[in-house]
Give the backbone structure.
Amino acid sequence: MSEAEVQEKKLNEDTELRIVVNEGEAIVELVDGRAEIFGSELVKNKKYLFQKGSRIAIFTYEGATVDVVGSGVHSYTSDETPMVIYLNTHAALEQIRKVAECDPSHRGPRIMLVGPTDVGKSTVCRILCNYSVRMGRSPILVDLDVGQGEISVPGTMGAIFINKMADIMEGFDCSRPLVFNFGATTPSENLPLYDLLVKELAEVINQRCAVNRDSNIGGIIINTCGWVHGDGYQCLVSAAEAFEVESVVVIDHERLYNDLKRDLPSFVKILHQPKSGGTETRSKEMRAAMRSERIHRYFYGTASSRLNPYTFEVNFSDVLLAKIGAEQLPESCLPFGAKIDDHNTKVVGVKPSSSLIHCLLAISPSTSISQNVLKETVLGFVVVNQVNDEAQTLTILSPQQELPSKVLIVTSIKFVDDRTIE
Ligand code: ATP
């Protein structure tokens, strides 16, 4: 790129430069002052590369000069940003951490971010995690958003234990996540299962906090789904209860704020905060494309850290396939004491068939198909690229050279692998 394409942007204090990469790439460099992207500080004179589709904000508390290069880049400066509000939220969390630090009978903050889709919930979680790391804390980021989660592939909920700032381009280090397989991209596909997994995840996190003082003090920052009506609302209330949060930030939705004030216990502090004008509203198609991109990244990595997945065949007889959720039996056929809802969380065996093509499968650590499969964190994911009925084999796309377990859980998520496209 020629020198002429460099655009120098001078930012005043408490302003942000919003950048949308419509075509090609953008290169960003901090040349003077101090600035950050979603809470991660920029290193002076280091070039950061952002791919097409990226949407970022370079914020500065004290003023900065930034160089931006890229012909397909749209950028503008805004001094109307809620960053100071987010900083105050962080300061309140830090107060709770200080109390927990002095008194082991207290615990760190537990905060949940809620709001409709595309209001910046994930971004605020990232900012709060980054700010706490910058104070030397080790928070836990919990992601309950099974549609656009940041921790693993779509259809999962999970947590990461954070002790370093998010990489400006790659995000947080998700190499050792705690992941539960939900198997679909909206809680509505199986509400009892969603609820059960939220409780299970909360239990695992509580156990971690009980034995790890840094995690207990660092606290829990929870991202949620953007489904805030009807059953979606109930999922939020249940999640707040399961994680015993003491504060909930509602971004940009007054009614949700009022409903939660009515329905959550009075000790829960509920805050109503604005969304940033920089957040992007994404269409259904864009969301689907982002999910696919997320799975692609799981197998193939990113431009700066590429991964080389394996493709191999496994015999039908070498794997045990299962799914979560069975056909509903009429009440009269249920065993004594069984609840009508139980079919939703029943683990049942599945026979290999061509319907598995392009299916994402979760790898369970279980050795057999049992109800244990449900509550166990998964080892990873594979995709079925082909099913050969004659040879009785599945062709699998996998991050590892061989399957770490033979129990594979079928999800309702599909992914068309690049290698299957001629
Ligand atoms: P969902 O409910 O779909 O998960 P969300 O509420 O978590 O969405 P985010 O993913 O945080 O929303 O934000 C939506 C998009 O807006 C992202 O691409 C993010 O990078 C971008 N974004 C957030 N804040 C800003 C900002 N201040 N300036 C520019 N872009 C921003």
Notes: The longest strand covers residues 25-33. The chain has eight helices and 23 strands. The CA atoms of residues 81 and 276 lie 6 Å apart.
